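sanity check this fold:
=====
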Amino acid sequence: MSTTISILPQLPAEITRRLQPVPALIGITAVRQPTFAIYTLGCKVNQYDSHQIARTLLQRGFRRVEFRESADLYVIDTCTVTSEADRKSRKAAGRALRNNPDALVAVTGCAAAYDAGQFERVAPGALVLDNSRKLELPELALQALRERPDWNEKYAQLREQTASEPIANATRERAVLKIQDGCNHRCAFCIIPTVRGASVTKTAKTIIEEARTFVSEGARELIVTGVSMGDWGHTANTSGDGSTRGSRGNGELCRLLRTLAKTPGLERLRVSSLDPADVDEEFLQTVAHTPGICPHIHLALQGGAATTLRRMRRRYTPELFLKWAKRWREIRPDGGLTTDIIVGFPGETAEEFEESLHIAREARFSAIHVFPYSPREGTVAADSPGLIAPPEQKRRVDDLLSLASKLSSEYSGQFIGQTIQVLVETLDADGVADGLTPQYVRARFRPSSQLQIGDVVNARAVKWRDGVLWCESR
């Protein structure tokens, strides 16, 4: 939701070499490559969008740096799912100008669509674009930079030196593959349909081509995602950009997932969140038993009481949710089952909250993302009576987090003593490797031999501590 996620790619040696400052050609004075940094908040759809922005900037001759460094261009891809997400987005814009007061700050994403003025106040002169213009950001940013004294001439020199050869945007070990955007459902608490628009889905051909590109650039795992993935299915009304407006159909979605899992060179395919109302037997069987697909599903519960779900305008009942959760446990007992739960939705009684705790125990979630309710102006719930007092909301959040920790420990305990597969995401200064299992369990170990980011290794799980499965290298 509002978690900050770095998507800085791990660059192969060849691409690293090509991204170094270009030496001067005869008769041309070498110029410093312009730099950019990206700060991404929120969902996996934003991660995908940020990756595409980075790809274009690299192709235009920019060099990527960390957000904490001085850069010519800062891109902030924002989230507005909660007021805290808005605050973090504004803070990032202010931090960019502190890093380099002369930089161009470009802000896009859902918070920019929700309230552009909040960024104009903290970063005067910022380029602020809503989601409909997000992928125009690189060209609009270049246009703005070219209007600055001396900048255009220096950039023209750079382009003459680098010509126009596209530079592959090498990905890190995991890449996000967006198959759908927007949402046609109007849940009472959610501003996303307003800031992202109606549901639009890509064609299977476009998705498969993108998957192959990501793998060729180094991705070992692809995460298939969308705002409302259940809408992906029958293609109709194809637009000029290769996207389509489609109707929901799990048969089509499952065929797509099985095809993607066979992408040459791909180690893993992971499926992102699906609305519980869109789950069916074929979807569960596909994720549970297709070689290459990670045995992990994310079903956003949001509330455990029927009355709460009706006020939220969700499309399922607690009984339907539990039906699919228990069915998942039957066909894939070791499979990961994660969820989102909103605490303190307007009118939530103590009894309704207890029903959320009850359904969490029954579903035996492997992890729970807990969110205190945050009013979003423009949603139905923002004007609803019965707001929960902050102290009571905090107490409920703490109770649910405590249960979530217990459930995660119980779930992950089944792997202790077993050999598990870990996709290495980071290697710290002490040589400890950190990554995810196919079931979406965080694992750490000290490797017995030299590793690289993106390696898939076997390790023996020995204990669960502090939300991590600690392992021994095999």
Remarks:
- The CA atoms of residues 338 and 404 lie 10 Å apart.
